[in-house]
Amino acid sequence: MREIRAAALADVTPGAPHLVEAAGARLVLVRLGDRVHAIADTCVHQGGPLSGGTLSGNRLACPWHGWMYDVRTGQCVFPPRGTAVASYPVRVENDAVWVALP
Ligand code: FES
Fold it and tell me: What is the pLDDT along the chain (102 residues), one digit of tens a residue?
């Protein structure tokens, strides 16, 4: 596990998915209240970019066909097929967002 500085906290706008490309990974950061969550950017359906999706509360809808993910866990909540995208631990420190990658 390695931890990367993914973004400045000020760059992660509440209510809008924020794409990060770092260390060979594409991640989406989502700020909910005082917490930031990180999930993989690639939809498990056909690879749509979740960072281009629409956020509704804790749910992020893929822009291609509307599959929805819980940004807190990466779990796909619609359709309910038991699939998920990867979810990564996040730490906010000194106004920076740190993400732990495998
Ligand atoms: S590629 Fe994401 S819903 Fe189809």
Answer: 899 999 999 999 999 999 999 888 999 999 998 899 999 999 999 999 999 999 999 999 999 999 999 999 999 999 998 999 999 999 999 999 999 998
DSSP code for 39: E
Q: Give strand pairing partners of 2.
A: 101
Pocket of ligand 1 (CB under 6 A): 43, 45-48, 62, 64-67
**From the CA of 101, how far away is ligand 1's center (Å)?**
24
| Residue 27: CATH number of its domain | 2.102.10.10
Give the residue, out of 42, 45, 51, with the most ligand 1 atoms within 8 A of its beta carbon, to mutate for a pocket test: 45
Residues contacting 36, CB < 8 A, separation 6+: 9, 12, 29, 30, 90, 92, 97
Q: Which domain holds residue 23?
A: 2-101
Whole-prediction pTM:
0.96
